[in-house]
């Protein structure tokens, strides 16, 4: 299992170093710095050197690294790393170099709690917050609480305290999707998929039991069968795989595909899913890039929004690569946004702050090239695009219902919000 | 010269905290420079500034693929600062094969022709740094012109010489060095010592490749040394801590070593005088470290030269004393050089005595704190080892091996193995040491070492029993050592039966000893052990059941190799008859003779360096061969005749091989397989290629003189022989008699047949010899050339009484068998012919002592000569007690050779003088050898 855990800053300085087993020396931290942080060509988040494996995750300006000498379950190790990030965010608001430096004592305390002899333990923020606090603790209170802590940490719903009370019972659901796209220079779609997450903020009293419904195809088909209705719903979404927060009762999901759970208090990620079929692409890009002789490249890029005109996209940015030997670049755009040449990144950056559905914009430009000693063909890297579209889901996923049952039978208010943003949205030309 | 833009840019880059930021800054700057270059209209300053920025980026490791043209333009500028930056860029950005080099060649040529020496220097720099073939072709002549031109300033000449050196090293074929020999050598006399030094360096390179053309440098180097050391003619600027120009001295001394020692006595004296001066100068150790270094540098090179010239000279004696002082010095460098030079001395000197005096110190150097010194110590010990100190050195090396540095161990193991093999004086000692080596060195023993042990043990019968016993003891010890298990497995499998009757070595005990370690071994070793087990099944049927259990178990292992072996061995062992098993597990034949793999391995480790070193690590004989090839290369000037001309190693009769001859004889393959010279008291050389079955000699020698008789007899088999010879043809009948009550099965014979002597068996011998019966084999023999070796006869059979047996005996077919005696020859015609043939080399003469105690018996001598088919001529010699004989040897294709013999016995002294004269040197010698042996032992 995990033998050691390190946090580095971007320069490779060790901020946090915790060894859990005796099979490693502290100097192993240097090996990671030399092999990964100083290495410009790192392709895998897992590096195995000899019998030692390094798992790393980058977050903000940090490297979060778990080291093991065993054949550990890598999914588990990565999950743990992300857990650390989430706990850090819950405790300090932001998990970056400064936060780590300012709170290293708490971080060591947390690390002692969530990992024991390299085996992950309870890493639920709510529970942890009961006994690892950032505030002063009065000793009497600690004595009084300790029994509660034990009950909760070992109880059936370790993620929720029993005595929560709200005057107004509310639940917010955010469906956030990122679209990944890669289109070849001939216009065929090489890769298109959506990875989404459903975030929930629950401010509900007592121990409420929630039921949650989506327009998931399997679920709907099942309903259709039971109601002996042969018609298939056209807008059902096929979900390839999904994973749930630990509060969701998986037994029930397996048996009748209902998502029912007792939510933790506050914000949490209810589920994650991925779809690969029937992806609605929010933008269509039509690039024309011609190399004229050895000295000039002409650009003509057309972008069209593919969603309903009632909606708007925000912060649309296109990065259009230029040849490495561009000497002078000129660009023109009509009404849509601003474009300029960024020599530091070898590309043209085109920003459109507000992009209405079904509208389209065009950029035209020209790059003059300088002579090169070694004639290397331009690799023509893809155009990358970034955007956010509110109240739109690329997968077509919709929340059908969220029901809350509680012993006291209070009324609750539910809010749902959808957002689609760009993951790696790339167009080759 | 200051460029603000450049300074700001460098400051920006230095301030970047992470790589990504640096990359962004670089990209931005490159885009800026591209646009500036694209616009054109840049003045010199701007161009210089931007090229500088590009160079800075290049030095940081970024790819620069533009701006080369601007750099080339800068070279053509008239301003020095711009030209300098241009050249800097060209040397950094261009490599020798880039097409752009063509663009600069013209500019460089112009600068070489320029009157301004500074420009000349810049151009020379660029040539030396880029140094492509094209540049060498176009510009070598210009460089040469600058080098020899009397108007060139000395600093230009220096640079030109070094530039030329660089071009020559890179493209020796382009430089017409041979045409320039006279002019370049003449420059060694240059008054400016700097120029002389650079030119000497250049000449050193030329002289190694063209020793003949550059032989003039020998005298020049000598003169230069004389001017420095004796005339003390040097400029004061070149005195380095009181030593006048040590660099030049060292180079001259080294140059002298590239040539063989001069023949001219005057030259020799001159050199000796110089060396004496250097040695005298170095008698005391200066306090100042630099002074000491400079002085030692010269001294060590001088000692090397002295050793090269004559390793037995007076100076070498003095040097040996000095070296003795150096190797116990406090300074690491001095110790290192001392040991290295001493190894040189050991490699060349005839007598190791002066070095042996320091043996203690040298052994101590193995414990030096510096590893390079330890290495040199090891090399020296390896070189200085001989019979007298081999035991001490080897045991010391073995002791040191346990604590030696890991990087050193493999080489040490090889060296110890070679030394042990080379200087072994007794079987037991060899086996003890080599097994101790294997057990202490553990994983550092290369495969070669244990292969070699197995080869030697297999080829030397006397070794086998002792080896098997010792190995078994090692296997019983609790430590685990993989290589030892391999050796043990092999040796017990082959020779386990030899010790099976001793107490504690019974078959089952052998098996348990091996098998207890089985599970610890690697797969490869286990496979080997399985083979051992199947041999056990063959040798010891009584433990078959235990072994079969193991096979059965391993039929199910995952590894396919092990599984296959187990299955096959199982199948073979459980066949209804043992025929298959016996054939498969027949004793291994002796290994063919070949160069020691150990030496090959060691030589691989010492790769040749750039400098054509004049000696190699190792004893004198290792160097002889090398020097020989050097001589061949440097055909003349004053080459002296080879001090030792070595003869190809031949089997010599025992009497001429005296006590210590095997030690210092200059046989190049002393470490070769056939020369494992284990000196037994009477020093019989073991021919390990074929180990004849003991007890074959009496029959072999007797039947050389007789036509029929018993060739060989042991407990099971008797071999009889009948023969007749006519001219160069002969017929042999062999009778194999089975003396036992059991049938001999798988009875096969095999007879060596060579080009010189063809032996054909028209009908193969019967496969089975019934109890107490006889089979016959006929052989036709034809002599085509004069031969030396008698053909060998290999017999193998199996019987229930004895198990598998192999015999190897020699057939009594010698050259005299093809001789026809001449009985009718009178005194006159005999002596006429005798004189015709004349003395050496066609005469072979020897004086030797009779082996018999009772004195010389005329009768038996007469019988022997008769038996060897000499026609004895009475009343020919004036002294009646002398024997005179004649005969004709029929050599088939080699023709007939008349042979005359004179044997003068001295009755009082029990001595003979034997003289054989024939028209062929080979025949003379061979007849002499045959008769000499026979007269010594049989008369």
TrEMBL record, chain A:
Taxonomic lineage of the native organism: Eukaryota, Fungi, Fungi incertae sedis, Mucoromycota, Mucoromycotina
Residue ranges of domain MHD in the record: 168-428
Looking up PANTHER family in the UniProt record yields: AP COMPLEX SUBUNIT MU
Which organism encodes this protein?
Answer: Umbelopsis ramanniana AG
Primary location class: membrane
Identify its membrane topology class. Peripheral membrane protein
Q: What is this protein called?
A: MHD domain-containing protein
For this chain, the family text in UniProt reads: Belongs to the adaptor complexes medium subunit family.
PROSITE patterns given in the database record: CLAT_ADAPTOR_M_1, CLAT_ADAPTOR_M_2, MHD
User: Pfam families attached here?
Assistant: Adap_comp_sub (PF00928), Clat_adaptor_s (PF01217)
This protein's UniProt keywords: Cell membrane, Coated pit, Endocytosis, Membrane, Protein transport, Transport
- Per the record, the domain of life is Eukaryota
Tagged with keyword Manganese: no
Determine if Cell membrane is one of this entry's keywords.
yes
What do the Gene Ontology cellular component annotations say?
A: clathrin adaptor complex; clathrin-coated pit; plasma membrane
Record-linked CDD domains: AP-2_Mu2_Cterm, AP2_Mu_N
Query: Where is this chain's protein located in or outside the cell?
Result: Cell membrane; Membrane, Coated pit
SUPFAM superfamilies in the cross-refs: Second domain of Mu2 adaptin subunit (ap50) of ap2 adaptor (SSF49447), SNARE-like (SSF64356)
Instruction: Please give the biological process terms from Gene Ontology that the record holds.
Output: endocytosis; intracellular protein transport
| InterPro entries the record matches | Adaptor_comp_med_subunit, AP2_Mu_C_sf, AP2_Mu_N, AP_mu_sigma_su, Clathrin_mu, Clathrin_mu_CS, Longin-like_dom_sf, MHD
Automatic annotation (TrEMBL), chain B:
Q: What is this protein called?
A: AP-2 complex subunit alpha
Q: Where are stretches of biased composition, namely Polar residues?
A: 636-647
- Superkingdom field: Eukaryota
Q: Which family does it belong to?
A: Belongs to the adaptor complexes large subunit family.
Subcellular location, record wording: Membrane, Coated pit
- Residues binding a 1,2-diacyl-sn-glycero-3-phospho-(1D-myo-inositol-3,4,5-trisphosphate): 4-5, 36, 45, 49-53
Q: Which Pfam family, any one, appears in the UniProt record?
A: Alpha_adaptin_C
Q: Does the keyword Membrane apply?
A: yes
Q: Which residues form a coiled coil?
A: none
**Looking at the record, which segments are called Disordered?**
636-661
Query: What is a single cellular component term in the Gene Ontology annotation?
Result: AP-2 adaptor complex
Ranges where the Clathrin adaptor alpha/beta/gamma-adaptin appendage Ig-like subdomain domain occurs: 701-812
What is the recorded function of this protein according to its Swiss-Prot or TrEMBL entry? Adaptins are components of the adaptor complexes which link clathrin to receptors in coated vesicles. Clathrin-associated protein complexes are believed to interact with the cytoplasmic tails of membrane proteins, leading to their selection and concentration.
| Annotated membrane topology | Peripheral membrane protein
Q: What keywords are assigned to this protein?
A: Coated pit, Endocytosis, Membrane, Protein transport, Transport
User: Which GO BP terms sit in this record?
Assistant: clathrin-dependent endocytosis; intracellular protein transport
Which GO MF terms are attached to this record?
A: clathrin adaptor activity
